Structures are given as C-alpha cells and as structure tokens.
C-alpha cells in the first residue's frame, strides 16, 4: 500500500506545471518587442530628419544678373564702357562651288580637316569632258590644215594643169574658127545648108567662152586664194582654239581645289552624288561640295542696342571672352559697323576682329565683348570718370529701410548691404557695395536667406 501511494505521488509530480520555467520566455519576448518598437521609432525619426534636411537644404531656383561697371577710371586704365554678347563667326566663310556639273568620283577631306590653298579636295567623273575636249581638238586640227592650204596657195602642179587646160581650149577654139570659116565659104557657094553654118557658129562661140573661163581660172590658180578667205579661215581657227581652251577649262574644273588655306567646316557631298551649278532642292543635287574658313581670321558678331551704339567707334578696342573658356581673354577691335540698323530689333550689327585667335575659338561659340573707353595719350590730363554700376530695381531687397542684394557665389546666396544712388531708366545706381562682375539675384524669393543654396535657372546681363 505505501508503495502504491508513492508511485501515485510520483505520477502526479510529473504532471505538475513548472511556473518558473514558463515566466522566463515571457520576459525574453517582452524585451524583443521593446527592441523592435525602438528600432521602428528610430527609423521613423531618421527618415523624418532626412526629409527635413532635404527640404531645408534644397536649392532655390533663382534668376541672376551679371553686374557690369561702366565708365573710365583713368588714361592708364581705360575701363569698360559697354558689355555685349554675341557669337564667334568666321570673317570669310566660303562655300566651295564647282564651275561645272558632275558626279562625285572622290572626296578627300573630312569635317575639321586643315587644307592648304590649291589642295585637291574633290574630283568629278570626267569621261564626258575628256571626250568633248578631244572633239574640239580634232576640229581645230582640221581648220588649221585648211588654213595652211589657203596660205600656201596653189601647187605648181595645179598651175601647170590649169595652163594645159587653157592651151587645149585655145586649140579647140582655133579649130572651131577654121571650121566656121570653111562652112561660111561653102554656105556662100550654096553647097552647105544654113543649118551647118549655125552649128559651126555655135561651136565656135562655145569654145571662145570656154577659153575665157579657163583663162580666168588659170589666173586665180596662179594668184592663189583671196586674202579675205585666209582671214576668215584664221578667224575660224581662233574660234576653234577658244573652244579647245573652254573644254580644257571644263575638264580642269572637274578637279576642285581649296581656294584658301583653312579648315573644312562642312562636308556637303559623298561619292556618287550629283553636284550642279543650277537650281538645287532639299533632296536633289547639291550646290556646293564643302564649306570652309580661315580660323585664324575670326570675328565676334554683336547686335548693339541703338541706345548704346553712340558709345562705339571704328577701331575701338575690346576684350573678348567665351562662355566655353571664360578664363581666356582675347584682344579685339571693332572692324565693321553695319551701315543700317535693324528696325525690328532696334539694334545695329557690329563685328569685332579677334586679333590673335587660337585653337580654343570655334565659329558659332557664344562670346562676350567688353568695349574699352578711348585711350588718352600719356602726359595729357583727363578728368577721372567714376565707374557707374546700374542694377535692376527688382534685385534690391528693402528690409525696414535697409537695402541689400544677394550675390551668388559657389552655389550659395550671400546677402550684402548696398548704398543706392539715383534711379535711372535702366534700373538703380549702386553707389557702394558692388565693384562690377558680381552675379546677383533678381526678384529674390521672400524665404531666401543668407547662405541658402541656389540654382541659377536664367542669366541676364
């Protein structure tokens, strides 16, 4: 009995739940949940912080204006009186056009190639032109032979033959005369009929006329051709020589050479294409083979406002820069001023010759020209003209009477106080705070602050 009770107690103990062993996993699960929640909260906070950072550091799009200082400082420092923007152009751009129509057999240049004057750049198929030249040469040889014949006159054999023909005709005439006398005598004696007399008279007259004709022919053969005939033949020979020269020129024109030393700007044709000297269409025959220019002879083409045109004069010096290489400066001077203005644009075209261009300059590049005031010889006094800086009124921010502007530098806006002068038709004059060359913000947004990042979307000035 005690043994059975003991076994029953052991069985009951094996079925008892150990509460201490169950509480430990619950504690671990609570800590895991807390870590997960903390991680999620941290991730949300980091995302929110990143969003706030992006929103607060986002670059503000602005429109800017390049400040220029106008006016001369002194005779030694002429100063810039006007800035203008334009394009680099070749002084003389040439479209190489052939003299004759033909099909391209060979082209030996590519765009950008440097060529020398008289260098062969294109060849046309020339079989037709060679045949025409040979035909003209053959006609010339024929006419030359005829001219020599006329100039040499009749050969001795021809003169002898003409003389012999004349002697035979005279003999026949004498025989006809004797026969005519015999028939007349017989007719008077009434032996021969009147018909025989008429026939004898007719034969005599015919022989007499033949003798006269052969006499003149003999004289012509002996004297030779008339001078007028020789001159006429000489004229035909000269005409034939001109035809040969013309055909030779046409043949030579099938070889197209560079008219100047320069650079190929455009290759307009390919092998097998037809080039014509007549009307050309968009998809038809081409009118030229290449275009080229001397890139050592470049100009800046500018449209100057009529309000500023009075500040310029022929030969005026300028400093040329390009947007592609703003750190490179080139000396220039005004070489051309258009004799008429553009009514629609209210501008006058001016061209500035670049005095010493280099390989950095390319036609159609954006360029700027800073025109300098007229220099005064040293030793002569000149009143110092203060530099004048005028900016758009929209660039000025008024904060409780404090005037300031925003200068864009290295992608950030820097607020700077300025002292304004008199207003003008083009804006307002800045007496203090700017020196020229700065890039300022036009119509600054109300929330723009000092040090904010900005993105320039449009430039003026």
Q: What class would the helix/strand composition place it in?
A: alpha+beta
Mean pLDDT: 83
| Quantity of strands, as a count | 24
Return the string of H and E elements. HHEEEEEEEHHHHEEEEEEEEEEEEEEEEE
Give the CA-based shape.
Answer: elongated
Alpha-carbon distance between the termini? 116 Å
How many discrete structural domains?
5
What spatial order of strands do you see in the largest sheet? 3-12-15-14-13-16
Low-confidence spans: pLDDT under 50, at least 5 residues? 72-77, 381-385
DSSP summary: helix tally:
6
Radius of gyration: 54 Å
DSSP strand content: 25-35%
Biggest beta-sheet profile: 6 strands, antiparallel, barrel
Helix content: 25-40%
List key phrases describing it.
461 residues; alpha+beta; conserved putative lor/sdh protein from methanococcus maripaludis s2 fold; Elongation Factor Tu (Ef-tu), domain 3; 5 domains; 6-stranded antiparallel beta barrel; 4-stranded antiparallel beta sheet; 6 helices; 24 strands
């Amino acid at each position: 009995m005690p043994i059975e009770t003991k076994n029953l107690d052991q069985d009951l103990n094996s079925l008892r739940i150990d509460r201490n062993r169950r509480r430990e996993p619950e504690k671990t699960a609570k800590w895991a949940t807390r870590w997960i929640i903390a991680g999620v909260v941290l991730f949300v906070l980091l995302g929110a912080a990143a969003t706030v950072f992006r929103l607060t550091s986002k670059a503000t799009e602005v429109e800017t204006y390049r400040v220029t200082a106008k006016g001369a400082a002194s005779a030694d420092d002429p100063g810039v009186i006007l800035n203008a923007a334009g394009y680099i152009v070749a002084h003389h751009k040439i479209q190489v056009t052939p003299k004759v129509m033909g099909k391209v057999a060979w082209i030996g240049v590519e765009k950008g190639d440097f060529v020398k004057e008289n260098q062969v750049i294109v060849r046309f198929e020339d079989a037709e032109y060679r045949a025409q030249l040979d035909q003209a040469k053959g006609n010339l040889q024929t006419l030359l032979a005829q001219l020599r014949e006329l100039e040499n006159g009749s050969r001795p054999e021809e003169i002898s033959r003409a003389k012999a023909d004349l002697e035979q005709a005279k003999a026949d005439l004498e025989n006809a005369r004797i026969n005519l006398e015999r028939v007349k005598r017989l007719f008077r004696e009434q032996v021969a009929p009147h018909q025989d007399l008429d026939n004898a008279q007719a034969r005599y007259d015919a022989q007499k006329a033949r003798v006269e004709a052969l006499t003149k022919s003999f004289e012509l053969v002996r004297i030779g051709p008339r001078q007028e005939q020789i001159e006429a033949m000489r004229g035909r020979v000269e005409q034939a020589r001109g035809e040969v020269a013309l055909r030779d020129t046409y043949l030579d024109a099938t070889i197209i050479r560079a008219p100047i030393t320069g650079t190929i700007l455009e290759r307009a044709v390919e092998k097998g294409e037809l080039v014509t000297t007549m009307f050309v269409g968009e998809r038809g025959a081409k009118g030229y083979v290449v275009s080229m220019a001397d890139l050592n002879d470049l100009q800046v083409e500018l449209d100057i406002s009529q309000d500023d045109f009075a500040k310029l004069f022929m030969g005026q010096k300028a400093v040329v820069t390009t947007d592609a290489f703003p750190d490179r400066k080139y000396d220039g001077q005004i070489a051309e001023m258009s004799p008429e203005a553009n009514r629609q644009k209210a501008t006058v075209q001016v061209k500035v010759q670049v005095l010493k261009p280099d390989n950095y300059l390319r036609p159609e590049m954006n360029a700027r020209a800073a025109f300098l005031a007229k220099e005064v010889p040293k030793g002569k006094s000149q009143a110092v003209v203060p530099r004048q800086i005028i900016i758009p009124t929209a660039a000025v921010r008024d904060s409780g009477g404090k005037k300031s502007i925003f200068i864009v530098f290295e992608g950030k806006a820097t607020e700077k106080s300025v002292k304004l002068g008199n207003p003008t038709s083009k804006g307002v004059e800045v007496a203090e705070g700017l020196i020229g060359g700065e890039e300022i913000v036009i119509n600054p947004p109300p929330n723009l602050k000092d040090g904010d990042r900005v993105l320039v979307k449009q430039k003026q000035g």
